[in-house]
Amino acid sequence: RLAPDARLNPHRSLLGTGNYDVNVIMAALQSLELAAIWWDKRRSLERLALGQILGFILNVPSHVSLGFVALPLRRKHWLAIRQFHGTYYNLDSKLRAPVPIGGEVELRAFLRDFLSQGLCEVFLVVPRAVEEAGAWLSPE
Predict the structure, then answer these.
(1) Josephin domain: from which residue to which, for each copy (predicted)?
(2) Contact, 10 vs 18, CB < 8 A?
(3) Residues of the chain with pLDDT under 50
C-alpha cells in the first residue's frame, strides 16, 4: 500500500530479509489506531509518562551473520519492548524468548544504555488519543 506503483518494495531490504523501514511500522500502527512517536534523545527519560505508553520500538545497530559466522558488517534491527503484569520485556526476535528487563527504573536504564551507544532510535507506541493530547510526556 505504501508504494503501489513500485516494482520493488522501497520500504524493504533488497535481499528480501525483512528490515522494513519506519514507514511500514507507522502505517501498521495507524491501522490499529496507534501511533509511533520518535523520542528526542535530548530529553530526560524521566519525562516519559510510562502509564500512557503501550510499548517501545527501538532501531539499533546489529551484527550481520551467515549461520554461525559473524560478518564485519552492521545493519539496523528493530526490537520491541512491552510491559506485562508490571514487568517490561525485551521482545527482540533475535532472542530465543522474551527477556525480562524489570520495572520502570530498569526500563529507563535499559533505554539509557541503548541511547548512549549512539545510532539508536527509540519510538514510543501510544494510542492516537495519547499522541494527540501529548500525554506521553510528563511536565518538566
Answers:
(1) 1-140
(2) no
(3) 2-4, 9-16
Our measurement of the distance from residue 70's CA atom to the centroid of its chain's CA atoms, rounded to an integer in Å, reads 24
Angle at alpha carbon of residue 49, lines to 48 and 53, rounded to 5°: 95
Which position has the grid cell 527519560?
Answer: 45
Cα torsion angle, 130, 131, 135, 138, sign = positive
Which tens digits make up the pLDDT trace of 92-109?
988 999 999 999 999 999
Which ranges of the chain would DSSP assign to H, the alpha helix?
A: 22-30, 104-116, 128-133
Domains and CATH numbers, the chain: 22-133 (3.90.70.40)
Task: For residues 89 and 55, give the distance between their C-alpha atoms in angstroms, rounded to a whole number.
Answer: 10
- Any residues with CB less than 8 A from the CB of 18 and at least 6 apart, and which? 12
Report the C-alpha gap between 38 and 132 in whole angstroms: 14
Cell output for 48: 516519559
Residue with cell 516519559: 48
